[in-house]
Amino acid sequence: MAKIQIYTPDYCGYCTRAVRLLTHKGVAFEQIDASNNWELRDWLVEKTGRMTLPQIFVDGVRIGDCDEIHALDRAGKLDALLGIAAA
Fold this sequence. Notes:
Elements: E1 4-8, H1 13-25, E2 30-33, H2 38-48, E3 55-58, E4 61-64, H3 66-74, H4 78-82
Parallel strand pairs: 1-2
Antiparallel strand pairs: 1-3, 3-4
Helix pairs in contact: 1-3
């Protein structure tokens, strides 16, 4: 199974939407609180080139933010990235 990590702060509507999608998919994921953790935020900017949250990684590879994972889901590509077997 894929290792899924989502970096979020407190009180983020986009993060809530992304977490809700992952939960709906039934996959195990690690939610990492990036609130007030400036070292972690700096690392995320360095790794992703973006300052926005959430940032979602699968097996260490960034797959996107909230809008991007929803777009992947609409395109039918998210399940394969998350390691969900096709029905």
